[in-house]
Amino acid sequence: MPIVVERVSHIYMEGTPMAKVALRDVSLTIEDGEFVGLIGHTGSGKSTLVQHFNGLLMPTSGRVYVDGVDLTDKHTSLRAIRQKVGMVFQYPEHQLFGETVFEDVAFGPRNAGLEEREVEARVKEALEMVGLDYSALKDHSPFELSGGQKRRVAIAGVLAMKPAVLILDEPTAGLDPEGSADILSKIQALHGAGKVTVIMVTHSMEDVARMSTRLVVMEQGGIVFDGAPREVFTQVELLKEMGLGVPQVTELMHELKGKGLPVQTNILTLEEAEAELVRVLELKRHGTV
């Protein structure tokens, strides 16, 4: 279910002295099955852009299409679109409200008018998808859970609607390293299983380098880079000028290259760096460098 953005601009409080241009003539197509990382400095327009993907915000100018349906058409059912394109906001646990985990995750399917048997099946499946034990937790208050568990319950509430696209705005914000790693592994598993297209807004260069199939970089309301992470992260100096930088391991490889080691600099993960350093050490051991 592709999302197509055509020359979209968005101005907050248009026509007032407080008017602020958040998006400037943005065009973008997201295809089925992609894992798109969306990065940019605070205020670059990331969150504004993704809220156009399911009609939470409407363009000041331009068009947005979801599976060929024009979201700006007054006859379009935005409720139906939001069932297909689910969004998990920053700190989604702040939006938990049910007396039990079951009631919270069941809210969306019930609101969609599904039969109770189907609601129960969806709640169970969604909780299992995020790695939570349905039987053990369904009757617990969500407010008694750990921060990471609350985050997973909130994501399960969106997954219970069986969206084709899952948008995550800073999904690890405020979590400790263990909780962050746990959430990200679940998201990666969902995408890897072919369950959903994922669009993830984040400030973590390491996360998008490791997980994304495509990286979109925004600055001042526009898209400045759009490509494979390995390609985008070759733009080290430009990214630094934008206040973003590159993954730490990529930075390290550039520094080693500058000191004369014949290493490849398009390295994104620790595993790749380890393999590259072993390769170079082997070359030095055999006297070929």
Q: Show unreliable segments.
A: none
Distance N to C terminus = 50 Å
Named CATH architecture of the largest domain = 3-Layer(aba) Sandwich
Shape: globular
> How many helical stretches?
12
**Helix content class:** 25-40%
Describe the structure.
The structure is a single chain. With 289 residues, the chain is of the alpha/beta class. It folds into two domains: 3-96 and 149-229, P-loop containing nucleotide triphosphate hydrolases (Rossmann fold); 247-289. It is 39% helix and 21% strand. It is built from twelve helices and ten strands. The strands form two sheets. A six-stranded mixed sheet has the order 6-7-8-3-9-10. Strands 2-1-4-5 form a four-stranded antiparallel sheet, with no helix packed on it. The N and C termini lie far apart (50 Å).
Q: Secondary structure elements and their pairing?
A:
Blueprint: E1 3-12, E2 20-30, E3 35-40, H1 46-50, E4 61-66, E5 69-70, H2 78-84, E6 85-88, H3 101-111, H4 116-129, H5 134-137, H6 147-159, E7 165-169, H7 177-192, E8 197-201, H8 205-211, E9 214-219, E10 222-227, H9 229-232, H10 236-241, H11 248-258, H12 270-285
Parallel strand pairs: 3-8, 3-9, 6-7, 7-8
Antiparallel strand pairs: 1-2, 1-4, 4-5, 9-10
Helix pairs in contact: 3-4, 3-6, 4-6, 6-7
Question: In a nutshell, what does this entry contain?
Answer:
The chain has 289 residues and is α/β, with parallel strands linked by helices. 39% of the residues lie in helices and 21% in strands.
Which characteristics define this entry?
21% strand; alpha/beta; 12 helices; four-stranded antiparallel β-sheet; six-stranded mixed β-sheet; Rossmann fold; 289 residues
